[in-house]
Amino acid sequence: MRKAGAFILGTGRALPSRVLTNQDLERMVDTSDEWITQRTGIKERRIVGEGESNSRLATTAARRALSRAGVSPEDLDLIIVATLTPDYLMPSVAVLVQQALGARRAGAFDLSATCSGFLYALSIADKFVREDPKRKILVIGSEVLSHKTNWEDRTTCVLFGDGAGAAVVTGSPDGERGVLSTHLHADGSLWHLLTLKGCGSLYPPCDPRIPREDYFIRMQGREVFKQAVRAMEAVAMEALETAGVAPGELDLLIPHQANIRIIEYLRERLELPPEKVFVNIHRYGNTSAASIPIALDEALEEGRLKEGDLVLMVSFGGGFTWASVLMRW
Ligand code: COA
Structural domains in the chain? Predict the structure, then answer.
């Protein structure tokens, strides 16, 4: 097996305190707790309130990760924030986090790869630390999807939530523990199935010719579902086959949390028992780029990952993009 690269020294997460339940949604659109639970597995999600923003969530998650890692902000070489819902189009969330942390030495940029953003960002960090294992890189997935959600569209508004997760990455201590492989994919031919057009340069704000719905997330759910199950299985198998590992040798699978039925499908295809698959979608819904780092942080806190464990992270999102990262913990 290839030598390990990026090693995670510490993780953190931040969730807004406001909880929006399925019962709350029943009062907002024509839906039911039963429908949402059966079709998605979601029971509640977190929504930002006054004074909360993407960069604040990202900074809080980062502080927790740095503290657990025992790394000071001045020691960071690079900050990468995966997001599709930045505070502003300019500057990036990453520089706001850099400033808030006082990470003066760090370069900083945002990365746009939708729900695969965290795994894309982790794979970039992996390349940087393979070049120089002493580097310290902060990798964050952070989203405020609630501000890009059409609260009149029941087919999307029940799905998403806000939150952030962070990981402090450095080189493998021994060549055994850390990232073993990364696989990134995209298919732009299907971009139109999942979009957030408004406020892009083709869709300027307040243009009366642009339909209101285009300022929010739009999705052809059934089509996205079909692509997601296919792509996530393929990229999971790609990771396992490249590493010469059988699915049964995995200790934990952390899939992107978009729909419990997608997660279940993947679990069955890999023939994994439920205890080897991390699920928190019932609490947070789909938090896009934040979903995997939040799940990783919770998995650690719950003692679901211990030294030497083999963990596979798998994502799928708009674009389409999909990715996997295989790690020895
Ligand atoms: N409450 C009640 N009914 C709803 C509803 C809601 N919130 N949303 C849709 N419906 C209705 C539809 O109008 C449709 O009614 P009809 O049969 O009378 O036309 C019916 O439920 C079935 O809709 P459909 O879209 O086929 O449901 P589904 O089983 O595909 O589930 C999703 C919808 C969105 C949950 C599912 O397609 C999905 O999870 N897709 C992938 C999402 C994803 O992964 N997205 C992001 C990638 S990161």
Answer: 6-174 (3.40.47.10), 179-328 (3.40.47.10)
